[in-house]
Amino acid sequence: MLTVDSIETAYGVSQVLFGVSLAVGAGQVVTLLGRNGMGKTTTVRSIMGIARPRAGTIQFEGRAIHGLPPYRVAQAGLGLVPEGRQVFPNLTVRENLVATAANRAGSADPWRVEPVFELFPQLAARARSLGGALSGGEQQMLAIGRALMTNPRLLILDEATEGLAPLVRAEIWRCVERLKAGGQSLLLIDKDVGALTRIADAHYILEKGQIVWSGTSADLRARADIQHRYLGV
């Protein structure tokens, strides 16, 4: 579904990515792991067209998307839950969801407001509340719901559980598992290796802008040395 091949991305004269390659298949859950500052968010920004790679290619469902503006990448079927949530603070919960609604793929059962409220009952109770008045956990749920309302074929979650209370993190992981069970393709960035190896099919580890390891969840669970070397604090 998504193929990232040898991309190099820089901000001005500062190069961040050095030949990053990864792939996400239809219905797969894939993670991008690594310590802070290793290039994970830049990889996501490159995929979404926010940062333009100066070398390499990105293909989505057989179509080259590198070099496209972000709105065209979104229209192609990629959805993003960005780091920091970035909900619309002056719109209500319902308005945040409706503002992004689209069914460009022509799904027979698209995401709508009611299914999002079923997925996150807390949002249903806050439907008339402004986005800026929500707790951090509620804002994260809203950010996920807003991305789902675009009915993406591939959903990218960048640090979806960062800074959240344990009960809220558990709720987010429950949501991710439900999405996987429904066949949603996912690319996840997070630090909870235990949850990720329980849910994901494959993993890529970034170190200083390069992929230094890749494998299955069973492979990663068996490699305590890899976890300590590249993911430990």
Question: What does this molecule look like?
Answer:
With 233 residues, this protein is of the alpha/beta class. It has ten helices and ten strands. It has a single domain (2-230), classed as Rossmann fold, CATH 3.40.50.300. Helices cover 35% and strands 26% of the residues. Strand 9 (202-207) and strand 10 form a beta hairpin.
Strand order of the largest sheet: 6-7-8-3-9-10
Sheet-strand content, in percent, reads: 25-35%
What is the molecular shape? globular
State mean pLDDT (0 to 100 scale): 94
Helix/strand order: EEEHEEHEHHHHEHEHEEHH
Tell me the number of helical segments per DSSP (H or I, 4 or more residues long). 10
Distance between the termini: 33 Å
CATH class reads Alpha Beta
Cα radius of gyration in angstroms:
17 Å
Task: Output the structural class.
Answer: alpha/beta
Considering the protein shown, what is the CATH homologous superfamily? Answer: P-loop containing nucleotide triphosphate hydrolases
- Determine the CATH topology: Rossmann fold
CATH architecture heading = 3-Layer(aba) Sandwich
Q: Please give the share of residues in helix.
A: 25-40%
Compute the number of structural domains: 1
Largest sheet: 6 strands, mixed
Uncertain segments: none
Strand count: 10
